[in-house]
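Annotated sample (chain length 885).
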Amino acid sequence: MTATYRLQLRPEFGFAEAEAVVPYLADLGVSHLYLSPITQARAGSTHGYDVVDHNRVSEALGGREAFDRLADACAARGMGLVLDWVPNHAGVGPGNTAWQDTLAFGPHAPASRLFDVDWAPLKPALRGKVLLPFLGQPYGDVLDAGEIELAYDDGRFYATYYDDRFALSPATYAGLLDAALDAHERDDVYFDLKDLAEAYRGVEPHEVEKAEALRLRLLALAQRADVAAGLADVTGEALHNLLEGQFWRLASWKTAGHEINYRRFFDINGLVALRMEEPEVFWDAHRLLGDLLMHDAVTGVRVDHVDGVFDPHGYLQALRELGAQHVWVEKILAHGETLPEGWATEGTTGYEFMNDVAHLVLRPDGLDALDRVWRRAVPDARSWDETVHASKRLVMETSLPGELARLATGLNRISEADYRTRDVTLGALQEALEEVVAAFDRYRTYLPHDAAEAREVVLGAIARAKARNPAAEPSVYDFVGRVILGEAVEDPAPELAERLRLWVGRFQQYTAPVAAKGVEDTAFYRYARLLALNEVGGEPADGALSPQAFHSHARFRALRYPHNLLATATHDHKRGEDTRMRLAALTEVPERWAETVAALDAATEPHRGATGPSRLDRYVAYQTLAALWAPPPAADAEAYRAELPDRLWDYLQKVAREAKLETSWINPSERYERDLEAFVRAIAADERVAEAVGPVAERIAALGLRHTLTQTVLKLTTPGVPDLYQGTEFLDLSLVDPDNRRPVDYGRRRDTLDALTPLLDAPNAEDVRQVVESGSAHAKPYLTARLLRLRRERPALFEGDYQALDVSGDGADAWLAFARLGPEAEGAEVAVVVVPRFARTDAPAQVALPDGAAWTDALTGAHVDAEGALGTDALPMSWAVLVRE
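Output written by the structure step:
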């Protein structure tokens, strides 16, 4: 594989538009088109992850025929297709017929087996029902306001609430048909209507087939009668009584945290989890994918949120058996964590590489200096560990408390099964569980697989939880650990063994969303030492990554996961790959940054409101402003600057809400957000602010571009498959979504590639240096296209071994060098890659070379004679990929 190229599909950019850019991507050198979800999503979806039908190609994107044309176009160009697949959850709502069937028939619906619903929850009023927390206000207020109405469509009656609708049980249809009788008292359909009402009176809630037969009669009758004639009259108490007879219970969205009884994707009420561990659910949800994988072009699958699946090991194996040649998992790996052995996967989607590069290019002494600036700017900031712990507990107490309560209750039932542990109270168990989950140092374990590693992780979490709570009874924590590790009950009876298995699985499915919401979506917005490090899967408090550590990670990929994706930007990133590199360049100029922060504090003081922004939000604003201030080369500076206030406000509002300190999504503070918006818009237009931030912004733009070019070369030459996010062959100065999902100008990219083609076909050192070293707009596109061509022309080089090369001399710390070695059977091709680790390389270094005396630089076309060692000052330019002649 040469490289993947990720496209974010949406109604305005569907299969036809994707097909139109295939020729450009093929000419760029991409081997695989990598698509965001293509299945039918909720109406109006802008991302496709709210799937309502896994077995139907999205009509909004063009439908099956348009997809097939896209696949054929890829095949004609020798390109493959990688599909982003969503196994963990589905979108609820009118478009999900399986969900509507489940609402109509409850646990009796055949489709109910798809969804992870607890039909026997703790609250008696919810037993046999599913909570639907979709009301904007308390249920009684909404009902009294007449906002819940009844409707008929396609043989079914529904309750509606604005755009939402909820299928009624056929066992409650009789009264609705009775209500229509008055309108047809003199019509010949009167008795047919009355007969049908009587027939529905005989339907029991579980009689699915009988109800379906009656639905066909209702459909036919609706052609002659207004079966909805009396629905408007069913209001108030009568409507409430009707709703009470359903397999669901409407409620305010604020009830979800404590009472929701279906597993969700994180804390999103509109995304219900699927029971993919059940074989019949897997096969039912993968019929379309199995069909698509039969097309020659469709060779790969990206598994979204694999940690949400009950048994990832079994799921990935089933996916292989379905016919997927290549499988990647979206998996956040903690520091020191690797994928479990035995997973049928090529590797991850590459977040770890993104973070490796971000830490590699940092100057260690500069990072230490920035740490001091951060402490002065936000003196009350907690340590990273404290921030994570507090954030995870906040999420468990506000967003996911119901799931925690269910786990604690299940654990209490397990403790009651043994006289030795029956005195452990429910309250003590819940407190211990919360602390253990908060102490987890990764997303989850994968028991019963990888038991040795899981044991180390769990016991580590137990020890940390105990240390944090010295007044708590330690035996409670030990009991929690024994249950997780399967050591609490010796030789349990089959019923208890199954209860234990399910509890452990549910526990593992809980720690993952707590980590995601607690770390990525809370702690990252509370800790702002250097925003370049606050990236998905990142460790913001870690120091610079040494060349030795970078080599170790690359070597591991070469040996274990040679087709792991290498991402530097994604649809989920916190900031664009080149925004990140500009911020990393602050470690090159820490003293200047300290002066800039002081100047910005003075310049922005008049724009602060009564409630804020807080010191934290101001410091985030300063870094973001510095990173975005300088327009990219060749950009329309006026248009770029005109967009900046809106982009900054959208971003900083999200920052403040995710941090949950001054405002939040659940409880927005109008006063704080009003002051924050006024601050953002004022500083974006203030000349004093421009004078304060401009010099450092221009400097890190220049230094950051050098980091960008290093990142580009590493991504395209280290072990793994480069993954280009849409448009990032140009500079990517985006922020978090939706800023990183804006339309891409492919016409401009096509024109740029055409203009560079003569140089790409026949590179010469002088012209290449002019393009790359000068910092032109063509620097990144040139390196990207040139190295993609090299990967396509010399695939053996990039499928082979990885060897770190010694770098010595006064400037050794500022350089990174390695060799890629093709298989001996294919002529032992060798390429030597040399890049500047730091943006400023104050002294040259010597690179030890593999055997060989004659080399050609693939970037410049220059011939290089060197044997044994090569000085960096003798390279054709700062970045070199020397191929042995």
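Annotation: The chain has a mean pLDDT of 97.
Annotation: Residues 354-370+372-379+532-704 form one domain.
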